[in-house]
Every structure is written in C-alpha cells, then in structure tokens.
Specification:
Two copies of one chain form a homodimer.
Chain A lengths: L3 E7 L3 E6 L4 H7 L18 E6 L6 H7 L1 H5 L2 E3 L9 E4 L6 H7 L13 E7 L11 H8 L10 H13 L3 E7 L2 E7 L7 E7 L3 E8 L5 E8 L9 H10 L3 H22 L8 E8 L1 H8 L19 E4 L12 E4 L9 H10 L8 E6 L3 E6 L4 E6 L20 E7 L3 E5 L7 E2 L1 H14 L20 H6 E4 L2 E7 L10 E4 H24 L9 E5 L8 H6 L11 E5 L1 H11 L1 H13 E3 L6 H10 L8
Helix pairs in contact in A: 7-8, 10-15, 10-16, 13-17, 15-16
C-alpha cells in the first residue's frame, strides 16, 4: 500500500487522502471541485492554476513561464502538472473553477450574463392625494420601468397597501418574470437568493446562489431518500404502479430531501428559507416527474413515454417545497423519457450547443446518458448502464464514501487508496475501473472478461498477485484485501460475476457512443472533445477507463472532466434567463435515439463488452 | 285604485301585474327583460316587436306597416306602442332583447363576436410507438392548432396520461387563454358553459351562459348577504376595519352567495357546477375587493384609493368559488375607488366607447355612478346618492319585491299598482319618484320640497287628496294607503323627512351630471343619449323622473333604458375576448373626477336638490 497524503482544498476546507504522486487536478476532482482544464491536462492553457499554501512546492521552469513569475512566487502551480508528494493545503481560486468562470463572463457571452428570472426594484413613491388617486397597485407598477405589463397576484394585493403605508411608500418589488411576487418594506435589493438542485437518482445536491452575482454561496447534498424503494428509476416507477400511495410517498421523500437541503443551505447564514425566491432543478425525466407528483408509469413500459417534456415553472409551495411563499420552482425540460433535464443541464453548462465542433457529453450516473453534436444538430441516447459503477450489484461494491477503496495500482503487488484514509470496507466505481484495467494489463483477466486461474495465468506474473487469484463457491475471485487489512474483518475481493456486471455497464455506454456516431455518420476521430460529466465522471482516470474500453479510444487530452455539469446547468438556468431559454431550445434541438430494439446497438453492445488489447 | 292586468312574459314565464293602459315595453322592463328600443319608444325603429299570444290584440295600421303584414297577423306588435288592456301572455323574441341581439351580431361587430376565453378542441392522436415517442403533453399540444405555446399546469399533467389511454387518445382539450385547464375523454366540444355575475351592493345576479353561442341559459339572483353588515359600501369597509375577521366574513358571505347562485343555475339542467369553466364578475370597486379577499380599507378614507384597478384573473377555487377545479374567475377592472367594474361593464355593454356621439350612462344602484363621453374621451364620477331609491332610510321604503307599491298615478285621488297584485306593505323607489312627481304636479309639494298643509295647499286640490295631507309627530305627511287597505293594518305614508332624503339622492345624481358636463365643457343638449342602467333604472318612468329633476331635462326619446347593463357587460367579457380587452381599455380610458371637495359640485348639488317648475 502506497503512502497517502492529506490534502485540504480551500476555501471549502474539503479534505481528501491521495496516493503519493497523484496530480493536484485529480485530487481536486476527487474533492468534488471542478477545476477547468480545457487543454486536457497538457499544461499548455494555464487555466487550472491553484495556490499551494502549505506542503512541498515543486519547482518547474515551464510552469513559471506559463503562470508568470509573480504568481509563481506566490505558490501558484498548474493543477494538471503538479504531483502531490506531501500533505498539502491548496487554494482553488474562483477563476480556475469551470462554471464559476463561465458565470462570471458577463457581457462577452450573452448566454451566461447574470440576469436572473427574479429581480428586485426599489421604488419610492409619493402617497396618494385627491389629485393623484391612482390605486396602490398602479402606483407600484408605474414606478417600475415597463411595470404596466406586470401582473400582481391576489396574495400580493392582499398585503401591498399596508406594506406601502408602513414603509412610507419606499418599498422593494420582487419580480419573477412578468409577475410581482412580493413587496418588501424599504430597500432590500442587496438580498436576492436562489437555489439550484441536481436531483440524481442516487444523490441530491443543492446550492445556495446569490442571484445578483451568480456566486455559489453554499453547497449541501444528501442521498436521495427514494433509494429505499429501489436503486434505479425503473424500480421507483414500479413502486408508483403497485402502490396506491406510491407516487405520493416518493414525492414526499424527494420534496422532504430538497427542504432539508434548503434548511442546511441557509442555516449557517442564519436566515430563513423564505428568503429564497426561486429554485431550479435538473433531474432525469423520472426524477422530475416524481418531484412534481406527475405519475411516471408509462415511462416504464414500451414505448417509454413521459408525461411532459417542456420545463415546468410552478409555485414551489404547490409541490411542498418551502421557500418564499410566492417563490417559483423551475424544473429544467426533458429531451425524452430517459434523457432528462439533467442531460439538458449538461449540454447547457458545457455550452455544447453553441459550438461549431462536434462534442460528445457522457453523464455517468445510475444510467448513462450521452449527447453527441454541435450547434447544427444533436443526438442523444440513454443506456441502462445500471448502478454497477455506483457500487450496486457488486459483491463488495459501495458508494464513494468513507472506507471505500477508490484507487488501485498494481505493480509487484496491489496498492490502493481508501477514502478517509481508514481501513477499507469495500470498493467504489473508480477503483473497480482501476482494478479491471490493471488486471487486464498484468494478464489476470483476458479480453473476454474471464478471470484466469492456475496454468492459464501469464508466466511472468509476480507471485504476490498469483496468490490473490483464488476461488469461492461461484468461481474465481481476485482478492484485494485480506481480512486482517479490512475494516470488517472480511477479505475484500472481486468475483467473476462482478467482472460481468462491469462488462455489461461499460459495454452499454460504449455501444451507446458507437450508435450515436453511426446515427451521425461519423467516426471516433471526428469527435472534438469528450465531456465527461457526473459526480462519478470526476474520479474516472482516463487511461484506466480507456484501457477497459469504458471510454472510446481517443487521446486523453481530448477527454475533459466537467464535474457536476447537471448542477452547474441548474445554476445557469437560475441566474440567467437566456440560459433558461437555451435549456428549452436544447430540449427541442436534441434528437433522441431509442436504443431498445435497435439491431445495430445490440451488435455494438456485444463487441463493446469485450476488453480491448492493451497497447500503451 | 285602477284595474290591474296579469301579464306573463315567455319563454321565461315571468309574471307581472300592471295597471290598465301600461305600455308592453314598460311591463317587460318591470319583468326584468331588457327590450331594445333604440328610437326611444317613438315607434319608428321597429326593433321592440313582441308576440302577443293571449289577450286583447289591439289593431294599428301604422304598426302593421312597420312590422310587415305576415308577422302582424301572427300577433307581433311594437312593445313601445302597445298598451295592456287585458290579461296577456307575450313572447319576447331573442332578437328584440338588447344584449342578446348584440351578442348575436357576429362578424359585423368585432367586439361582440362570440369568441370566449375558454375554448375546446377535440383531438384524435395515434398512441405512441418506438418510432414516435413524443411525450403525452407534446402529443396533445401538437394536435392543437398553435398548441406549442400553450401551458399545461401541473394538475393537468397529473391526469393527462390516463385520460389519453382510457379514451384511446380521443380527447377534448379545454383551453383558457394560453393554458390547457383540462383534458376530457372523447368529444365534449358541444358542452361549454360559463357564468357571468353582476355583484351589486344589494343584489347579486348570476347567469349561466353557453360559451359557444353567448346565449343566456338561466338567470338567478339573491340579496347580497353582506347587507347584514350594512346597506352601503362604507359600512362594509368599516366592518373590515373594526373586526379582525371582518374581511374574511364578508368574503365568505359573497362567495357563498355566488356558489348558491351557481348551484341554482345548474340545478334544473341536472349538471354539476364543475361543468362551468369560467366566471366573470362585474361589481363596484369595494364589492370586487371583498370578493377577492383584498382589504378595501383605504377606500373609505381620503384620498379614497383602492388596492387594484386592473381586471383580475384568478383560479376560482383560490377564492372559494366552486366551478371546474381549474376554472378561472375574471373580475372586471375598476376605474377608480368609487367607479368600479360594474360601470366598466355598463360602458362595455352599451358600446359607448365605440361611438362618435357623446352619451351619458347613469347606473343607479346604491351609489349613482355615471360616465359621460365617447370614443375620444370619457369622464366619470360617483355620487353618494345613498340607498333611498332602494327603499332604505324611507319610513315605508322597501325593495321592489312582492307587496311593494311600484307605480302611482294621481287624478282626483291616488291610484297605485302593487307588485304581485297583493295588499301593499310599503313603497319602492319607482313609486317614490312617481309620488313626488305627482305631488309636485298637483301642488302638494312645492319647489323647495316642502309638503304644504292647510291653507298653503292649492285652491283647486281635489278633496280626496287634501284629506290625505295629515301630520305625524315629526311634521306633515301624505297618506298613500289607509290601514284598511294595507297588508299590515298600518297606514302607509310619506314623511317630510322622506322627501328630503329623496331630494338629496336625486340632487346628488343631477349634480354629478352637471359636474361631468362642466368638466367636458358641454351643455345638456350636446348629450346624444342618456343610457339609464341598473335594475332600478328599468322601472323609472322617464316623464316622472324628469318632472322631479332626477333626470336632466332632455327629450324623453333621448333617454334609453339599458337594464342590467352591468350583468350584460359581465356576459360580454365572458363570451368575447375582444370585449374583455375592451373592458381593460375602458378602465384606462375613463378619467375619474373626484367630487369630494369640489366647490362646483357643491353649488350644483344645492341647486339640484330643488324641484324644477312643472311645465308639461
């Protein structure tokens, strides 16, 4: 087992333990930070610079030139070129973060200028007189630029007169699109909060956002409590079909989760959730149906159609989400039954639809959704990759949480890294990819996915590795940690069946890619860039993923991690009306390819389950 | 007491008892029917023809020529020229009714073509397949012409999939403006109902309307239950100010009344109120505030401003009105604090804003609102005429219901007509005008309003009349019915104080008219037509009203009764989007003149309280 280093990322204070020699970029993504590296980690663009404030500071003339002497002296280094060789404290500045940078680009890029759906206008009006008897609502509307077309809902009308008089006609109007949702006493324009959510099948992430700047003020996440009724969307849809109260239960569960996250987001600021005026959500089609309480039942049976596609703007309290009483919730639009608002958000955040070059975005969650295309055209599909990469259906599989082996290297023996630097409990998805990739390289697993045993093992295999190949009742296994090493006193290993599960999962994703390429009449080389999204995508090591054929065989610098792009897209749709409009355009622009029943997909799938030759 | 005849109007079956010699037109308005008589009752336009199917059929060569021989032989006569000399049954055809005719005028008059806010589209779609995976909402929207911009609220999304499948994708979409409010199985396009309400301070009238034709299917009315907390708007506003739950009480009261009327409207058709898709309401500013639960408190204190002016479109159930769960309620816009949606409705129904000629509309309810103007400009005001004409604050005053003396003639003695042809209980507003007008003519009341007694009475006064001039504790009275004649065994009379109340009321209205004329820099003769609206307006006899100076001194044929124009305007806003838009334009177009504190109004008022010289 290699030496581990403790790395603290600031200003979040997130801590990870990584193997000696790990790139700062990799450690940062492991900590859940999305550092921008548009050159693919080749050290040429200089965008990924971070400041190392504690720990070994490696010297590099090339980096000094790239970064500039002044910053270099202050400890700035390129995250993609700097390896961790000691415990470290590293500051990731805002401008090096993928989406922060995007949102800050005001003016130049229309689509990302901060211009939220919710805005505030402070007005000062004279009180009415016999000469000026305009009613209170008209008095308010006339003071707002272009106010005459705004609507004033009845709840507002019930309060406006007293608010105006109690604050001597100096009030702040809160406007959502074409509706005044609140009138607050005095000038409250400095306070404008929203929240953006990525509602995953497994994990729900929420961010508190300053709508004036687009800045992310706080982040919180929870496991989607719906997992209790099944780890994939199909089992949840099934739950709504067989139980009369199933839909209500699942809706309550996710709404409760969103409310808990909202409470957590505002807690440390000591404010009420009522100060949040709008929420956006990006989720897959099923998650969005469940959130809104719309029955998703026909999604689970051929021809797999949902109830709605377009984005939904609802009053948050109508579905139980607790923010400002007149606050709205905007659920990003879907593309099809199995390509949802989360994928729209990924396309939005990556700006794919504004590019001339053809990109491929892959969002690896419980399902694997992918989109190929450019400004001109886009095609998408969804593969039932299953939750294997999230650790489900794998003997010792687990989520990427404390105690999970998250990285594996094999030389003479196995070395691994454990999240939290504790004794291991199981294996998470990234380590499974590492393990398979390494077992392929040393010849323990053949190209069909068979774990070789006895005389089938390659001749020069180090003895420590050969000893790890053993058998259990179901067949051959490869032992990662003996019971003495493991937290629970049980040895940790991978089975032949586990390898098959992973083959199915990675095969499905690659076959999806191949089908999209065929649909577009393109070759792999025509892809300008692969954008790998999803919390899981953050941690996949490109070389390993390519080695097992999980990612297509294109140069690593053309594979870019975009992190939680779904969450970033939800935030864009929150802070920019133009982005919200673009989300609706994306929903219409992207063509959906149904893989079910396509013979070519089946053929690709059969091929993609195999492992490629290892040539590195 | 003159002989009474029983007249039944069909198809409504409404029965009234009228004095011998009463014009059919007058009897019809007394029965609550608004027969159109644009020539002012001169017998020249031929629009007011009705069919006498039972009773004495008077012959008239002139009418035969006007009507045409064929219809004349079938018993058609002009309502404005034919006097009732026996019991009669009379059919009032739809084309002779003021607003029916207007609504039927499709095409020619853009403003009144039937094109309701609510429409239905029947669609038949193919079920989804793997080749056509459009989601259910998109499938619905694409089948509706220009459907892509329609919104589908969440409540609809929750039901649409099952409705589509249960009815084999043959459904009817119910659309309110830009929103699909319901999807019904099969083809229900033949069923499209709405309801229009005139919400008066005293009386609430509702109509069930076929939105496909604009036809009025049923009418029902109730006393506004808010009268329990006061008979004028000021006392109701006061009630909301001094009681914490006052607003809630008054809102519940009016909503309950509306719901009761809705139930009554649908009852005889054996259908549910959920079949009604939209409701429109015309009420004064205070009534509309109370209906929507918006506090009207600042209406009652200078400078008398309301909370809102614009029309409000709300989900009916949000204010407790029970129609289709997604049905809307549209409250017509106001003009100012004391000129409300009922006046807007009057302007809308009379088409005043589309005319080049200057008209004056007077709506006599508990307040007297009036509007002067044309296409070019309009001015309005509201006079606190008070409820004297509705029988309040008058010793024996009562509403125009069974037992009320409603018509009075004086020759050698007094003769009167009682509603329902029973022994009298009291006097209603029209009879008060008759009585004052007749007492002025015979000289019992002088031009200052004093009831003359003893030697002050004119010399030639018939002895039976002189006997009726008596005294009570407060001063002189004029006895209408001795206790033997009256239902309650108490004599019925008018007091000096009653005369003063009526002087104040009629003076306020006339002074309002004079102020508007002055504001417009016009003379009485410049008024093309006076349009007299309101349930009360129906029954006012023009000659009598002019004699006491309640109406200005212009030729009677230029005074036209338009009946419940507020209700008709609510119906127009229900069946025609163009009319609804026009209502909003009226609300902005009409300038409001505040009479409070205007010295010229005070001077006019002083003069207008006097009675004019009788010259007939």
């Amino acid at each position: 087992m290699k030496k581990s280093h403790r790395v603290v990322f600031q200003p979040e204070g997130r801590t990870v333990f990584v193997m000696d020699g790990t790139l700062v970029l990799e450690a940062a993504t492991e900590a859940g930070l999305t550092v921008d590296a548009p050159c693919g980690g080749r050290g040429v663009c200089g965008k990924c610079r971070v400041q190392i404030v504690q720990g070994d500071l490696p010297e590099s003339a090339e980096q000094k030139e790239r970064i500039g002497a002044e910053l270099y002296e202050q400890g700035y280094r390129l995250a993609c070129q700097t390896r961790i060789t000691s415990d470290m404290t590293i500051v990731v500045p805002r401008e090096s973060r993928l989406f922060e940078q995007k949102i800050l680009t005001e003016g130049a890029d229309r689509a990302t200028a901060v211009q939220p759906n919710v805005r505030k206008v402070h007005i000062e009006e004279a009180p009415p007189t016999l000469e000026d008897q305009a009613c209170d609502a008209d008095r308010l509307l006339r003071a707002i630029p272009n106010g005459e077309n705004l609507e004033a809902p009845i709840d507002l009308l019930r309060q406006v007169s007293d608010v105006l008089r109690e604050s001597s006609f100096s009030v702040t109007a809160v406007i959502n699109r074409d509706e005044i949702i609140a009138v607050e006493p005095g000038d409250t324009t400095s306070d404008l909060l929203g929240a953006a959510f990525d509602i995953g099948t497994t994990t729900v992430v929420g961010m508190l956002v300053d709508l004036r700047t687009g800045e992310r003020l706080a982040v919180a996440s929870r496991t989607n409590p719906q997992v209790q009724t099944g780890d994939d969307v199909i089992s949840r849809i099934e739950h709504t079909r067989v139980n009369a109260s199933g839909l209500r239960e699942l809706q309550s569960a996710i709404v409760g989760c969103v409310n808990d996250i909202l409470e957590e987001l505002v807690k440390e600021r000591g404010i009420s959730v009522e100060r949040i005026y709008e929420v956006t959500t990006a989720g897959n089609t099923t998650m969005t149906h469940l959130l809104l309480g719309v029955p998703p039942r026909y999604l689970a049976e051929a021809p797999y159609v949902g109830v709605f596609r377009k984005g939904c703007l609802v009053r948050a309290r109508d579905i139980g989400v607790r923010i400002h009483p007149q606050g709205k919730l905007y659920a990003l639009p879907n593309i099809a039954g199995f390509v949802g608002g989360d994928t729209v958000a990924v396309v939005l955040a990556t700006g794919m639809m504004q590019k001339d070059e053809v990109c491929l975005a892959i969002d690896v969650g419980t399902n694997g959704e992918m989109v190929l295309g450019s400004r001109e055209w886009m095609v998408s599909c969804s593969t039932a990759a299953g939750p294997a990469f999230e650790g489900a259906r794998i003997r010792f599989g687990m989520r990427a949480s404390q105690g999970a082996i998250e990285k594996i290297l094999i030389n003479d023996d196995v070395s691994y890294n454990v999240i939290g630097n504790v004794a291991p409990i199981g294996i998470c998805g990234t380590a499974l990819i590492d393990l398979l990739a390494e077992l392929r390289r040393v010849g323990v697993v053949d190209e069909t996915g068979r774990i070789l045993t006895g005389s089938d093992l390659p001749g020069g295999l180090p003895p420590r590795l050969a000893e790890r190949v053993q058998e259990d009742d179901d067949g051959p296994i490869f032992v990662l940690a003996e019971k003495e090493e493991a937290a629970n006193g049980r040895r940790i290993y991978i089975t032949q069946r586990d390898v098959r599960e992973l083959q199915l999962a990675k095969g499905a994703i690659l076959a999806g890619v191949m089908t999209l390429l065929k649909e577009a009449n393109m070759e792999l080389d025509d892809i300008h860039e692969i954008l790998l999204a999803g919390a899981f995508g953050n941690f996949i090591r490109r070389k390993m993923a390519k080695r097992i054929g999980f990612l297509p065989q294109i140069p690593s610098e053309r594979i870019r991690f975009v992190g939680n792009a779904a969450g970033a897209g939800a935030r864009l749709a929150l802070v920019s009306r133009a982005c919200r409009d673009e989300a609706e355009r994306i929903s219409r622009h992207v063509k959906y390819i149904e893989l079910a029943g396509r013979p070519d997909f089946q053929i690709f799938f059969g091929e993609a389950m195999m492992f490629p030759e290892v040539v590195e």
